[in-house]
Amino acid sequence: MKLQDFPEEVRPYLIPKPSGDYFYRCLGCGKEQGIEELLYVCPECRGVLMIEDRKWDRLKSIPGYKWRHIFDYRSMLTEPALRGIYRFHELLGSIIPVDHIVYLGEGHTPLVASNDRLSKWAGIPFWFKNDGQNPSASFKDRGMASAFSYLRHLIESRRLDSVLAICASTGDTSASAALYASYFVEGVKSVVLLPHGKVTPQQLGQPLGSGAIVIELPGVFDDAMKVVEYLSEHYPVALMNSKNAWRILGQESYSFEIAQQLDYDLEGLAVIVPIGNAGNITAVIKGFLKLYDLHIITKLPVIVGVQSEHANPVYLYYLERNREKRIFKPVKVKPSVAQAAMIGNPVSMPRVIELVEEYREAYGSEEGFLVVEVSEQEIMDSMLMANRNGHIACTQGGECLAGLKRLVSSGILPRRVDRAVLNSTAHMLKFMIFQEKYFMDNFEPDYEVRPKKDLQNQPIVVTFPEHVPQPGVKVSLTPDEFRQFVTAASEKIADILGIEKKGDIHS
To answer: Strand order in 126-130's β-sheet?
Structure first.
């Protein structure tokens, strides 16, 4: 729709102008820093930073129902910059001018409902929110759209001519960072550090295809992250991992979209998210808190974080019910099919600790935020079960479904919850290697996965006796020979499927 076609009362709000007063706040010492420079840790105490708006309360002058109208009408605009996450401009990047926004098609990912069979299997009805339908095929694009839009804003306003964007990754971050960096063509170069042998071939191919400099290091993600942190502290590089607070800011859009897609009615809802580096779950928490504070939603959903038994530091932290006695301890990870969540020392743990308490207080009880752990077996079984029922869930999506099933069967999920949204963070095609291992029963022992026959699937190769003519690249059959082949192939397939010829059925 064109601007003049919208209702007059909402028209002035649809194309947002820069507003607000953003700053970094340290979760360690509480000190504030300006955003004129890209900061990743507090220069005073090395603590984790969050981005806040000193003028946030200005948004409360607009009632919640009117914000709903603004966002709903804005989603109908044809302006590319406002088609994605920045249709919620005031909530996540209001200082960025519209013409500095980088948009590659991110956001607007669908909620796909479970069918009756899958709902029964899980215990309650649910939706997968398919963030694998973002441009680089993962949820990371939400954060990269924000981080690179702000980077573009700095480049444009300060006339920078050369920026080196760097990240460590388990796969999805590198694919997304490389994609968004490549959009600039000039001025921004992408470098990604990957743990050697710990990334699927599909995920390795993505940053290579986008032209990034890809460097593989020994160890796991946590080791590569330490190298990137050192580089960002001692060299002039732009860090694109979740220590970049602009990344986390953009990922809040996941919560905004869920609210909008459910007509802002979140009564009885649980939102289930895998926990890796803990940036995404903190963004989801913060996003719902913002909506609640502005009365855009009137009920907060239950938020559930899921971790594999092979990488479960957040789950272990919250096993201690007494807040005063909790002590965070990193864990040594074991191989996990949920590779994006195979992190033993989450960078965003300080954000988790602060925001979970804030969320539970706003929700009114500790039930507002829960953590559950699941086995690698449950993750794979759940992913395959989901995809047998019309979904394109990745292993992290399987992790969420496994978490929901375990919560329902154990009775831990609050009774008021009768529906859920599950985060499928990436496209299943990125993790086909694990499906193949399951089908072929060749998982390495460390994964602790044993395939179930009813979930395995392999192609059936049809062979023929020598006397049956067979087509080939360099074989040309006569019409009669080809008819013989079609007849023989059809009879073989009918035998495999257990079906009879039509004439035989009627006789």
So the answer is: 111-113, 126-130, 419-424, 269-274, 302-308, 369-374
User: What does the block give as tokens for 307?
Assistant: 């971790």
- The token pair at 171 is 């796969």
The count of other CB atoms within 10 Å of the CB of residue 11 is: 13
CA dihedral of residues 285, 290, 291, 293 (deg, nearest 10): 120
Tokens of residue 418, six digits:
């009768």
- The reply to whether 318 and 385 lie within a common domain is yes
CA distance 54 to 96: 15
Residue 68 in tokens? 């709903």
Same domain, 169 and 305: no
Task: Report whether pLDDT(85) > 90.
Answer: yes
Q: Residue 373: helix, strand or coil by DSSP?
A: strand
Backbone angle region of 367, left / alpha / beta, with phi > 0 → left and psi within -120 to 50 → alpha: alpha
Query: Which one-letter amino acid corresponds to residue 504?
Result: D
pLDDT tens per residue across span 5-25? 899 999 999 999 999 999 999
| Residue 233's CATH number | 3.40.50.1100
Starting at the edge strand found earlier in the chain, the sheet holding 22-26 runs 32-33, 22-26, 49-53
Can you tell me whether residue 191 is helix, strand or coil?
strand
CA distance 109 to 186: 30
| Contact yes or no for 18/94 (Cβ under 8 A) | yes
Tens digits of residue pLDDT in 228-253: 889 888 888 888 988 899 999 999 99
Rounded Cα distance, 89 and 250, in Å: 10
**CA distances from residue 228 to 136, 239, 240 in whole angstroms, order as listed:** 22, 8, 10
112-133 residues labelled b (16+ CB within 10 A) or e (exposed): bebeeebeebbebebbbbbbbb
Q: Are residues 276 and 329 in the same domain?
A: yes
Pair 40, 244: CB distance under 8 Å: yes
pLDDT (0 to 100) of residue 94: 96
- 256 & 245 share domain: no
Q: Where are the beta strands (DSSP E) in 75-233?
A: 111-113, 126-130, 163-168, 188-195, 213-217
Instruction: Evaluate whether 236 touches 230 at the Cβ level (below 8 Å).
Output: no
Cβ contact 426:175 at 8 Å? no
Asked if residue 74 belongs to a domain, the reply is no
491 in the same domain as 361: no
